Structures are given as structure tokens and as C-alpha cells.
Amino acid sequence: MQFFLDFEKPLVELRKKINELRDFSTDNVDFSGELKKLEKKAEKLRNDIFSNLTRWQRTQLARHQARPYTLDYIENIFTDFFEVHGDRNFRDDPALVCGFARFDGQPCAVIGHQKGRDTKAKVYRNFGMPNPEGYRKALRVMQMAEQFGLPIFTFVDTPGAFPGIGAEERGQAEAIARNLREMADLKVPVIVTVTGEGGSGGALAIAVGNKVMMMEYSVYAVISPEGCAAILWSDGALGPQAAEALKLTATDIDELGCVIDDIIPEPEGGAHNDPVAAAASVKEYLQKQLAELQKLSPEELVEQRYQKYRAMSRIEE
After folding, report:
1. Are residues 37 and 144 in the same domain?
2. pTM of this prediction?
3. Residue 308: CA atoms inside 13 Å, Cβ hemisphere, count?
4. Which of 32, 38, 86, 112 lies at a 20 to 30 A Cα distance from 197?
């Protein structure tokens, strides 16, 4: 079933009319003039819509249920993917996909959040919210990658770590904190891409990288807009106002000057409109970043990562 956001619907309806007119065109009936006018109108409408998106609308795009997830990027960017399951302690966590693959023929590790599109898949993937065992599985794969000198690619797309009682009992905070510490000291290149939602510690636990990139319509914040609104105003329905205050879009984060290294452009209307083209764009940026990092020694990689995160501050006198 196709899903469209409210602000997408006028453009979708116009595109539907264009397609219908094309279907009615024959050798005897020429609608080329009308089609050109409608195409021009559609282009203007698209520009009007996507050049004036609010932060809340960008958040909705980041959460679009047709947006590519980690497994989609793995399919279109990597080859020979072999998934690793379990943390060798409690169980496997389907909310985090971890494993090894080849990137342009080079062995690497791949880690990323995975959401579901239908109800069954969403429940199975826990809506992309990992438990502690997910982060421990990710750390297990990262340590294996370091042992064999493999670059690590992570894909971030989660509203946050799962806040359930069981997760807390099994050490959610400790698992996240341990990942932050261990990732800071990895002696291999770590490249992070925020593909959808970058939510709080649930995102950071796999996002301590030498290079951090955000897709054009992704968001990155310490808390979701609804969670922020619930804390500040005791009303999660005020998420749109909270989104404006959080300044969580890729453009907002880039303006800070030290948090991310690149914004990856998306296809017209967002990555969900052309997942293959979106993956091709991501791959191009991954190639560029990896080429830069492979020039550094293991010690230089650790120092570069350290200095990157030390620089994430502003001092006013």
C-alpha cells in the first residue's frame, strides 16, 4: 500500500493526472502540449513544497514508512553480506542489523538500525528501537572488524533505544555507554550515515565515527519532538513546535560546523521516491570518505576521532 504525507498529496494527485493523460495518448490523440504544461506545473509545485518544508515536515519525511532502511542500503551498496546474530549473552536483537560484507570488493563491517513497514515487521524489529543486546551485538561486530582491520559503516535510523523495563534490567544505559567508549578507541575507519531518525543515545551508540553524514531529509537530536513536547509542555501533540525549537534537520546540524561532515542529497521528493538512486548517492559519499580515512594510520584514526568530538562545543565569554 502506498503511503503519502499530507504535504505530498497535491503533488501526488498532479502526477496521477499526468500519468492518466499519458495512458490516454495515442497516435491519433496527441496530449503533448497539455502534458508539458502539467509537467511544468508539477515541477513548480514540487519546488514550492520542498523548498519551504518546516522542521516537522522534514521529521515526517525522515520517518516515512517507504523510506529505505539499512537492509535496503546493504542490498544496493554492498555485496556478499553475511549477517551476524546474537550478543553471546542474552539473545539476538532484530532492531539492529550487523554483519560483514564487501564494499567495492573490500571486506568491511556493516551495522544499522532496521525498522519494519507492515505491522508484523514493525513488531519484529521493535520499531527500530534496540535493546541492550542489540548494542552488545554491534560492539561484538565492531571489535571483530578492528581485529581484522576492516572499515566499519553504520546506518542510523531510530527514534531511540527501547525504554522498556526489561531493557533497563539488562543494562540499557551501560550498553550504550560502553559502545561510546569502545567506538572512540577503534583503530579502523568508522563512517556513520544518518539515514532517517537519529534519536538520542539510541543513535549515538553506533554513531561515534571519524566521519558522520546526514541524508538531506534526515533528523538528528537528543530527543524526539514528541518526547521533548511531553517534557516541556506535558503534551506530546505539540511535537511540531518542539521540532522548531530542537533545530534537528540536516541543515540545522550542518550550521553548527562540527557535528557532521556532509549532507547527502536525496532524489526528488525524498529517498523513498527512488531508493536505488538514494543508495547510489550514499555510496558515492561513502567512497569519498573512506578514501580519505584510509590514508590515516590506526593511531591517527583514533586521534582524529578524539579531536572531532572534543571540538563539539561552543564557548562564550
Report:
1. no
2. 0.90
3. 19
4. 86
Considering its fold, how many domains does the chain have in total?
2
Residue recorded with cell 490523440 = 29
In terms of domains, do 35 and 111 share one? no
Q: How far apart are CA 233 and CA 121, in angstroms?
A: 33
Whether the Cβ atoms of residue 156 and residue 198 lie closer than 8 Å to each other:
yes
**Whole domain around residue 47: which residue ranges?**
6-22+30-52
- Strand, helix or coil at 103? strand
b or e along 292-310 (b: 16 or more beta carbons within 10 Å of the residue's beta carbon)?
Answer: ebeeeeeeebbeebeebee
| pLDDT one digit per residue (tens) for the chain, 317 residues | 467 777 877 777 777 877 777 777 766 666 777 778 888 887 777 777 888 889 999 999 999 989 999 999 999 999 999 999 999 999 999 999 999 999 999 999 999 999 999 999 999 999 999 999 999 999 999 999 999 999 999 999 999 999 999 999 999 999 999 999 999 999 999 999 999 999 989 999 999 999 999 999 999 999 999 999 999 999 989 999 999 999 999 999 999 888 999 999 999 889 998 999 999 999 999 999 999 999 999 999 999 999 999 988 777 77
- Spatial distance between the Cα atoms of 315 and 27, rounded to a whole number of angstroms: 69
Our CA angle for 281, 71, 55, nearest 5°, is: 60
Strands 79-84 and 96-103: antiparallel
